[in-house]
Amino acid sequence: MIASTNLQSIGFIFDLDGTLVDSAYQHALAWQRALQCEGMSLPLWRIHRQVGMSGGLFTELLLRQLKREVTADQLERLQQSHAQAYEQLNGTVRLLPGARELLKHLIDSKIPWAIATSGRLATARHDLAMLAVPERAVITRDDVTRAKPDPDVLLVAAARLDLSVNSAIVVGDSIWDMLAARRAGMLGVGMLSGGYGQDELERAGAARVYEDPGDLLQRLYELGLRF
Q: What is the model's pLDDT at position 56?
């Protein structure tokens, strides 16, 4: 985890929702409920296509699809409504298969890792508690000016791990993770567990694609890791 002092040869930067935690669809549903609170409506599948990017950019794209303008106050209410709706859905969120085991294996193998999410810490706390991950191992939207697909959270994570950008492996479930990894100059690895297809992830820059954390754990050798 984030405790290294020397430049490491390789390390992992994980997305959270849809990558380690099975929460991508709960976030989509929470956004749908937030929009409904403001008298707006979009099909759930359209909302899901944007999950994984910065909340501000996310709402901008959704509102463009609605072809309407909103005030700054409405945008703030949307963010708050989403956080409240997601909290109500916390009971349905589960860890993805192999998530804890993968992180433990990396710790045991002395391979550094961190979590970098476009979400805010207040929203992520429940999921981090399930993973038993300390908050110091996590970079969130609160720590940067711009979130994914901008590379800021990934660059902060690499700096905390003392990793050069070409030594970092970014693991994420969305095209926004892969685009952010490319912009940061890092290797992108995709997960199917967030709902994006293999071809979409590969077109966005994923060098390899796995089903879930458990699948990645069984096939870490494909990334050239030696234990």
A: 66
Specify if 144 maps to a domain.
yes
**For residue 169, what are the β-bridge partners?**
12, 187
Per residue in 184-205, pLDDT (tens digit) is 999 999 999 999 999 999 999 9
179 and 123 fall within a common domain: yes
Residues 186 and 140 in one domain: yes
Give the residue ranges of the chain where pLDDT is below 50: 2-7
- The CATH number of whichever domain residue 206 belongs to comes to 3.40.50.1000
Residues 212, 24 contacting (CB under 8 angstroms):
no
Domain count for the chain, please give it.
2
- C-alpha span between 209 and 135 (Å, rounded): 27
Lateral strand order in the sheet of 11-14: 138-139, 113-116, 11-14, 168-172, 187-191, 206-210
Q: Which domain holds residue 42?
A: 24-91
- What the block records as the tokens of 85 is 């709706």
Q: Is 46 exposed, middle or buried (0-12, 13-18, 19+ CB in 10 A)?
A: middle
Residue with tokens 């296509």: 49
Could you tell me the pTM of the whole model? Answer: 0.88
Active site residues: 15, 17
84 token code pair: 């409240």
Amino acid identity at 201:
L
Burial of 101 (0-12, 13-18, 19+ CB in 10 A): middle
